[in-house]
Amino acid sequence: MKKLSISLLAALSILASCNNDENSKNEPEVLVNENPGTFKEIGSITIGGEAAAEISAYCEKTKRLFTVNNSGVNQIDVIDIADPTKPLKIGQINLATYEGAANSVSVFDGKLAVALESTTNKQANGKVVVFNTSDYSLIKQVTVGALPDMITYSPDGKFIMTANEGEPNTDYSQDPNGTVSIIETGSYTVTTLDFASFSGQAAALIKDGFRVSKVAKSFAQDIEPEYITISDDSKTAWVTLQENNGVAKVDLTSKTITAIYPLGLKDYNTAENAIDVSDSDDKVAFNPWKVKGLYMPDAISHFTVNNTPYFVTANEGDAREYTANTDIKRMKSLKLDATVFPDAATLKLDANLGRLNLVADMGDIDGDGDLDEMVSFGARSFSIWNGNTGKIVYDSKNDVDKKTNELGTYDDKRSDDKGSEPEAVVAAKMGNQNILFVGLERSDAFMVYDATNPTSPQYLQTVKTGDAPEGILFIPASKSPTKRSLLVVSSEGDGSVKIYQPDLR
Question: What are phi and psi of 172, to 5 degrees?
Fold first, then answer.
């Protein structure tokens, strides 16, 4: 084994491992000369079947992972990774007594925060429950908004934030506001913010690519927060509004939502954005099509270069499918404008665009009952945006689907929907490089990029994972049980938790 050359860089800010996605970045890193393009699986554990391993958080104090397990149970599984090559389940935290089901977890300084949606009424307010990571004893439980879908500690540990999706019930008789909750960890005081103050900006936002459902009872009810990332100084948060195709900016000092950034549309009618659109043509063929995509990001992360903040989005896409409102239809079932699409009959063939899922209530620009443009779900990519302006600075184009096709994990049966479905993204510091890890739900892989230059990230590698990776967790060398960087991938399709480590240079 090579001798490790390890030195302490007191000025280097890092991602602290006691947080599942926004690991604390305010402690000195142990610099290990690792190659970020060489991650390999070193350990694996299966904790159940489908939905058994969704999101994991790591506690440095106990060397344990805390993993959401909703596979016929309602619990957090505790996994000892003191030896990451031999992960061992050592316990669980039963959540049934709290009348909630876990969606997300985060850890800071020996405390585990769990986001729970109500199991008695999904549209009711949810909870955050905080436990001690050493003995699993209850520390506190507080009420947050409806359907808390993601939770994270701020890097300084002073706040816990939840993205409360506020989904409607199937007939829209109940449709709570989408909200963001901010919990002060000293007093556990909760501030829950909605988006009602932006209703007057709805028309301008929609013009720039923001999406508001045609059946929404109000602007605030239609907003659906999905995921949060918090700046290194714990003063700013960016929140994905997935179904709305936007990102919100939150000031944690004043506890206010200061901006909504519409993300616009991606044009697939270019060679660099060429996509595979059919699951019925018995081949994988990337071609330009006269189609656009809403970015509709799921996960979000961030990094800073030359004092400029950037946020990174995994552009999964997501439809609304309820009895009272289904906004997804096959292209071949919709009427196309004959002038814009003179070859409509050919386009509607299953081997062409006929099978592609489109946003049913978008694209009729002139209001005459036919589509002047075709709009699909997701962007089949990850993107980097300026955190101060919300303007895009980079998109991975069709790299995600092409690279997984080369790896042999691309699922052609998802071509008519959202392709590889980028679901997770984590930005991490490795040495002096900003590294991005992007999890692909339908292609069962993660990709690694060097984003040190945010306008021109460099592809490093694609690595196979378990089935349907949901959560990606980076553990920096300074917090790792082995003092080597680790990547933990939790996959809800097969209930596996896999641990990856890079080679030394």
Answer: 65, 15
| Structure token pair of residue 438 | 């992007």
pLDDT of 30: 56
Query: Burial letters for 219-235: b for 16+ Cβ neighbours within 10 Å, e otherwise?
Result: bbbbbbbbbbbbbbbbe
What CA–CA distance (Å, rounded) separates 19 from 152? 7
97 CB contacts (<8 Å, ≥6 apart)?
A: none
- Contact call for residues 182 and 164 (beta carbons, < 8 A): no
pLDDT at position 2: 37
| One-character DSSP codes across 238-299 | EEEEGGGTEEEEEETTTTEEEEEEE--EEE--SSTT-B---SSSSS---B--S-EEE-----
What dihedral angle (degrees, nearest 10) is formed by the CA atoms of 189, 190, 196, 202?
120
Q: Is 492 left (phi over 0), alpha (psi -120 to 50) or beta?
A: alpha
Tokens of 425: 């993204």
pLDDT recorded at residue 36: 98
What is this structure's pTM?
A: 0.94
Residue ranges in the chain modelled with pLDDT below 70: 1-30
Are the beta carbons of 335 and 370 closer than 8 angstroms? yes
Residue among 451, 449, 436, 456 at smallest CA distance from 394:
456
**b/e map 149-188, b = 16+ CB within 10 Å:** bbbbbbbbbebbbbbbbbbbeeebebbbbbbbbbbebeee
H helices present in 348-398, as ranges: none
Tokens of 231: 């700046």
Burial of 310 (0-12, 13-18, 19+ CB in 10 A): buried
What are the residues whose beta carbons fall under 8 Å from the beta carbon of 235, sequence distance 6 or more?
A: 251, 252, 253
Closest CA to 247 of 359, 427, 390, 396: 390
Phi, psi (deg, nearest 5) at residue 322: -130, 160
* Beta strand residue intervals within 252-351, DSSP E: 256-262, 265-267, 292-294, 300-305, 308-314, 321-322, 325-326, 328-330
| 201: three-class secondary structure by DSSP | helix
Token readout for 287 is 């071609």
- Confidence (pLDDT) at 1: 40
What does the pLDDT read at residue 29?
52
239 strand-pairing partners: 228, 248
Is 401 within 8 Å of 286 (Cβ atoms)?
Answer: yes
Identify whether the C-beta of residue 156 lies closer than 8 Å to the C-beta of residue 185: no
How far, in Å, are 30, 247, 427, 479 from residue 10 at the CA level? 9, 33, 20, 15
